[in-house]
Design brief:
- This protein is 44% helix and 27% strand.
- The protein has 312 residues and is an alpha+beta fold.
- The strands form two sheets. The protein has a six-stranded antiparallel beta barrel.
- A hairpin with a 6-residue loop joins β9 and β10.
- α3 runs antiparallel to α4.
- The longest helix has 33 residues.
- It is rod-shaped.
- It is found in: Cell envelope.
- This is Hemolysin D.
């Protein structure tokens, strides 16, 4: 009789061990997205609250953008200036400008001819001792000055007449490209000051409040993506030969009646130690394989809820 009772207890204990090892445990997970401050700036608006459901592209946090707006305006003005200079060099001078330059050159030429005559006349008078050295020097200076003015105006008229060199036009075009790149960079910096949801999800944490000045790189928003919900369980090595990627598997979610059907998405190739909460004390020292199991999208379960997976 005693042997029968002892055998029954031993059988029950073995069954209990088998039941413990036939279940893998884990938690419900959602992909987490962290949004950080691009620069050192002040928060001017918190557009959402913790726990709020947000859509993709929805504004979450607005940082002070006054300096960035001013920089964009400056870059826009520089681009307009560069385009105007490039267009001017492409089209060349207007006919009225060329005609005015030609008239100025002809007038300077006439003045230079007259100054040369005056100098020759002064030379004759100096030889006849009718004027002094000072008057002769003044005539010489006037001749040289008018000749230089004539040459300068001639070069200006010639440049307008022949147009700009290809090198100058190419340089002006490059300045337009430089100004465009600077404007794009300024606009990107301005846009970065408005933090938007990269995907639809749930606002998990907002560690800062409106009016705070945050350093560059500080975490401003933590989002939990709503497009994918999955269970992350610790799969024992003995189950690797029975469970494969793409297999359908039943998952028991804590707090919900019945089971939900999941699909094995990924099994890690590198083993890890089982966490303290999974399985029993003996199994915690064993190596397990992290396994992600996609769950139906229509179940409304927060991240962190415990799950159990029945192993085949």
């Amino acid at each position: 009789m005693n042997r029968f009772i002892l055998g029954t207890l031993l059988l029950c204990w073995l069954c209990g061990c088998e039941q413990q090892t036939s279940v893998a445990m884990g938690t419900v997970e959602r992909d987490r997205m962290l949004l950080s401050a691009p620069v050192n700036a002040q928060i001017t608006e918190l557009a959402v609250e913790e726990g709020q459901q947000v859509k993709q592209g929805q504004v979450l946090v607005q940082l002070d953008n006054r300096i960035a707006n001013a920089l964009v305006a400056q870059r826009q003005a520089e681009l307009l200036q560069a385009k105007a200079q490039f267009s001017l060099l492409q089209k060349g001078a207007r006919q009225e400008t060329i005609a005015a330059a030609n008239s100025a050159y002809l007038a300077a030429k006439a003045n230079a001819i007259e100054a040369q005559r005056q100098y020759l006349r002064s030379q004759q008078l100096f030889k006849q001792q009718m004027i002094g050295q000072a008057e002769l020097d003044n005539a010489l200076a006037s001749r040289d000055q008018t000749a230089a003015s004539e040459q300068q105006l001639y070069q200006q008229w010639l440049q307008l007449q022949n147009g700009n060199r290809p090198e100058e036009i190419a340089q002006a075009e490059q300045q337009v490209h430089v100004a465009e790149a600077a404007l794009q960079s300024a606009e990107k910096s301005l846009d970065d000051l408005t933090l938007r949801a990269p995907k639809a999800g749930i606002v998990d944490t907002l560690p800062w409040k409106n009016g705070d000045r945050v350093p560059a790189g500080a975490q401003l928003v933590s989002l939990l993506a709503s497009e994918r919900i999955y269970a992350r369980v610790y799969l024992p090595e003995t189950a690797l030969s029975k469970i494969h990627q793409g297999d359908a598997i039943d998952v028991k979610v804590d707090g919900r009646d019945g089971v939900v059907s999941g699909v094995v998405r990924h099994i890690r190739s590198q083993p890890a130690f089982t966490p303290f909460y999974a399985l029993n004390e003996r199994d915690r020292a064993r190596l397990m394989y992290l396994t992600d199991i996609d769950l139906p999208q229509n179940i409304n379960v927060p991240a962190g809820v415990a799950v159990e997976v029945s192993l085949p």
